[in-house]
Amino acid sequence: MTEPRDVVEQQLAAYNSHDIDAFVATYAEDITIHRADGTRLQGRQALRDRYAGQFAKGRCRAEIVGRLSEGDWVVDHEVAHGLADEPVRVLVAYRVREGLIDRVDFLG
Questions:
Q1: pLDDT tens digits, the chain, 108 residues: what are they?
Q2: How far apart are CA 72 and CA 48, in angstroms?
Q3: CB-hemisphere CA count at 13 Å for 108?
Q4: With a threshold of 0.85, does the pTM exceed it?
Q5: Which of 56, 107, 104 is nearest to 82 (CA)?
Q6: Are 15 and 24 within 8 A, CB to CB?
Q7: What strands, in cross-sheet order, belong to the sheet with 40-42?
Q8: CA gyration radius for the chain?
Q9: β-sheet bridge partners, residue 92
């Protein structure tokens, strides 16, 4: 069985290489993403639609400055580059079940 930390690391590598197919493949079909602004994305297709344009520009990159894990959960302290004029700092909680990320909470 794949460890949650490994799945989250695979998703990060796909994000940083702008590989939309590999990125989406780390998520469950019914993924739920709770964004910091209170909105929610539901499902792989919504995830693909949300990130495809960003990946096409090839400027986004995330740097992990801290990572905690317990059970199914991995929480990353990320610095996101290329999304705004200045880097964006955020906490992101990923829940991994059956080898796929099925829930993401952006905490700030």
A1: 589 999 999 999 999 999 999 999 999 999 999 998 999 999 999 999 999 998 998 889 999 999 999 999 999 999 999 878 899 999 999 999 999 999 999 997
A2: 23
A3: 8
A4: yes
A5: 56
A6: no
A7: 40-42, 27-34, 100-106, 88-97, 73-81, 61-70
A8: 13
A9: 76, 106
